Backbone:
């Protein structure tokens, strides 16, 4: 196997790629595992995810890897966002943090009605 291309993509886009491989019966072991994990964790459709990515790219301080992480995790508050941004969190102003959370909130409002809880206790 040889690496042809490498790029950062959201989980929603990865799910569409894995779904295009066919039925799980036709997939290799690794592909089946990826398919199962993506089914569990993808919260929005690819169009919504891409719209969020485009919105987040307008915030110049965000790196591509942070943008993809935010699009995958959909943080609900500043504490969730702080966990994603780690050390870089302190580089952002309160207004920038609010812009990020507002962009995520706009996508979350348009999510399909099947809402999953963050943690089940």
Residues:
């Amino acid at each position: 196997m040889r690496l042809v291309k490498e790029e950062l993509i959201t989980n929603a886009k990865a799910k569409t790629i894995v779904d295009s491989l066919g039925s799980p019966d036709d997939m290799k072991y690794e592909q089946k595992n990826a398919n199962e994990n993506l089914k569990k964790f993808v919260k929005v459709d690819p169009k919504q995810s891409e719209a969020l990515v485009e919105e987040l790219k307008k915030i110049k301080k965000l790196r591509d890897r942070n943008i993809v992480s935010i699009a995958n995790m959909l943080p609900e508050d500043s504490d969730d966002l702080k966990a994603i941004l780690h050390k870089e969190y302190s580089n952002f102003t309160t207004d920038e943090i609010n812009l990020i959370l507002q962009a995520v909130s706009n996508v979350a409002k348009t999510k399909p009605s099947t809402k999953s809880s963050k943690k089940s206790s």
